[in-house]
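Shipment paperwork, digital attachment
Item: protein structure file
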Amino acid sequence: MTATRGAAMDAPTTQVPADRAVAWHVVSVAETARQLGSSADGGLTSAEAAQRLRVHGPNEIREQAPRSAWRMFFGQFTDFMIVLLIVAAVISGFIGEIEDAAAILAIVVLNAVIGFVQEYRAEKALRALKQLAALKARVIRDHANVMVPAVDLVPGDLVLLEAGSVVPADLRIVGTAQLRIEEAALTGESHPIEKQTDPLAEADLALGDRINMAYSGTIVTYGRGQGIVVATAMATELGKIATLLSTTEEVRTPLQKRLAKFGKQLSVIAIGICVLVFVLGVLRGESIVLMFLTAVSLAVAAVPEALPAVITIGLALGAQRMVKKNALIRRLPAVETLGSVTYICSDKTGTLTQNKMRADAFLVDGEAQRAMPEGAALAQEPWSSFVMALALSNDAGMDGSGEAIGDPTEVALYLAAREAGHDKTVLETKAPRVAELPFDSERKCMTTLHRLAAGGGIVAFTKGAPERVVERCTAVLTAGARTPIDAAALVEQAERMASEGLRVLAIARRDWPSLPDEFSPAAVEQELAFVGFVGLIDPPRPEAANAVAECRQAGMTAVMITGDHPLTARAIALRLGIIEEEEDGDRLITGRELARLSDEDLAARVEHLRVYARVDPEQKIRIVQALQTHGEFVAMTGDGVNDAPALKSADIGVAMGKVGTDVAREASAMVLLDDNFASIVAAVGEGRRIYENIRKFIRFVLAGNTGEIITLLVAPLLGLPIPLLPIQILWVNLITDGLPGLALAVEPEEKGLMQRPPRSPRESLFAGGLGYQILWIGTLIGALSIFTQWWAIANGSPNWQTMVFTVLTFAQLFQVMAIRSERESLFAIGLTTNLPLLGAVLLGAALQGAVIYVPVLNQVLKTQPLTGSELAFCILLPATVFAAIEIEKWLARRGVLYPQRAAARAAAAS
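Attachment content:
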């Protein structure tokens, strides 16, 4: 020990291999101490620790230099659509339309504020990860037990661990006393792992299999131990995840991509049309100033400036609805992304399962059962001994609030006995514990001895690994008597249970007239009578199977990605319907097998795989990215630290709100407040509804804009005067793109929406006939407007411009009512099923009436009062638009129009 301590003092700190990739789990305790210049019993000196701290830096997760709030805010103005709107606002101000310019700028600022808030929240992910680090650590320095700040730990420090403490750095375990560490947040294991000190043979073991290591951020649940620090700060496994978080690029949502492309296309078209209108007007002899203002007004009208506001408000309203369904949206565009999801990659522990062990299977008296018998059967052997052993040979219990506390495995056994009517507290009065042989990793079993009140004898209950307990048995306890044991057959039965993903424990007993004189495992744990097996599992959530089935019905594929054992993952996947019994062999892959696959090989297989077991965080990202190379849109659900990088890399990350870590929540786009996988289905429906409503708004606005453009472009070609003034163009846009368009955002979900397959991620924003609908409806509106101008001029009406203005406005109001449903008639869905839209239409009609008949507005918008017959004409003629759209939907329902869409619906329904 002295020599080791001297080495620690003399070794140059620059030679400590803490930042080098060393497979510490294959290195012996002595060699670990030697390489790190430390001691397995004395640790470092304070002087050496201080020197190493200067070399390696503090033990904390480093964050990238944060963007300043101003940079973050002004960065929101770099989006192409936002730039286009700013230009439109400047142009509007230039031509004197200050009100319109102010409205556009208000929309721009609103979007910037919302974007800033969302980005600021996303930046908190690393800060939450940093908070997982332990604040204090107990170490041995100068051969003394001292408490130091966790940030001061250095490679070579000897750290003491005890139940309840957070592991402050990555450690090579050098001493244990029944040490168990819960690593679910890092590896996905659903129960604590017992640690040992011996070196392991394989260098490429998954984190969950490195049972002589303790990792930063995990929690000690039982026992005590010591470990030498082998990695601190960013070199820890937790630090590597932080690195992944800082380097993984976030993907843009489908809507963001489509709108960016749409904005660029629209700007080019708008500029071209404006130039054309200006040239044609000048060639006809119109005033250059008038044509310039007209062209600029048309440019403003051609850009749907309300689009960002409609999208933001629509997504916000959708997010509010989803909170009521226990889904909290952290980034608004994620609402729409859910409608495009084709794959849901879900962590097993705590997401698909309950994250608590439960006794799920029993084998007693040669009979396998899923539940214990009731009534008199439990009072007879061997069930009586079996249940008594579950209750008494157990350190779990109830706290003051009625919650079971203790090791998860023992809690499961305790609750199984309690549910069968055998309360531990009551049994202890009849058979108090008088001695015990604690569990250790070499024997793989434990024994408790109890004095029986009736008769005064001693009963010893032994539980542990099946092969270790069975080899100590000489008989089997049955209903009739004790029979000779067939050890091989019993072990085979245990293996069969284990193959179903169960963690199997064996129960045995031995009776003594009094406490044995020699109290040792060799003396006590011999000549036992085998009682039975109990199989434990972290069971699926009750609603998870239905949720998986609903996802399949909606055309989505559920995939399980877990750090747990392959057999356990397979068992849960079979129960949930993620895989079928006959196909599970080629649907499951382990992390080690995955590591051997190239990216190309993984991409070739990824669409066929359904279960990934024993995977590491980096592999989760590979899976997500491999699916994305096929054009799939991936949702990743999870709750642990290990899920955070994949949550950020996925198209949408879904974190658990109750048991999820802060890291997962901050890296996600959506949080399930009830940790209910089924809530995702409701969220998908909401996402699809929102996207359909956005498409309706785009159809509504662009068809109206197309009508305006045709009116302004074609009328001069036909020898007619300019039909609308610039202020009237802007008014039409305000009325038609404003309140009615915003009200479309709250349109209820259409019938059968969740029986459709997901939209193709590569689908155009104008797919499904939307582009044709925009063109023919816009052409019809333009034709009606030009016909009105010709008819009014031909009949000598001095109000022809006001009539064109009114027809254009009412055509839009009729259109918005007709397009509420893609297929169903307005009369089938009802006028009152969207009251905000009905109110917006009525308000729009009233405002147009005011423009026509209020003298002050006549002066502002250059209108004249219409006669009764002229007003009737201007209302009845635009009703043609409503009738035409209803006829189109009638033909579509019968498959005459858009047959591809009808075929896709039929295929989805089948």
